[in-house]
Amino acid sequence: MPFAAMPQGEKEDKIYKGQSTVYYEFLGISGSFFSLQYDRVIVKNTKSYINASGGVGYYFAEGKNSWSVPLSINYSTGIKTNSHFEVGFALTYVNQFSNEPEMEILYGGVRLGYKFQARDKMFFRISVSPMGKILEFEDHEPCTYLDCDFLNSFYFFGGLSIGYSF
Predict the structure, then answer these.
(1) Residue-by-residue DSSP string for 107-138
(2) Among candidates 139, 127, 135, 129, which has minimal Cα distance to 153?
(3) Pure H helices in the chain
(4) Which CATH number characterizes residue 53's domain?
(5) pTM higher than 0.70, yes or no?
């Protein structure tokens, strides 16, 4: 018995195999007007958990259209309650396909938020997400942080998410 020597009260497995969420996000870390995302708890302990998210988003305004792929990793507190504080880091790829020329941009960002997540039910989050350009391609020519004026490419988004946890 491999767990026979384990001290009393210590958890056998800190990896949580469950708790998925599908949600719609308005603005937020996707940098889009709306995005559809999937979130999965990957590590859980008695007071907090780490979850990873990914999805696709779409943006349209002033003749500009773009789609995005946000990927994030988040740390959430308050596992024994429905209310959670969340902090996360994200990379978001954006393809602006209606521009002349086409542009591809990689943003890096942070998510700070409050999340309400009832087990097997509703998911709601409100967050702030400052983001900045990391890399830009215009006609497939790279422009890095050191080459370009990215200080003028810093954005501060608020986000609102609603979805279903299962």
Answers:
(1) EEEEEEEEEEE-TTSEEEEEEEEEEEEEEEEE
(2) 135
(3) none
(4) 2.40.160
(5) yes
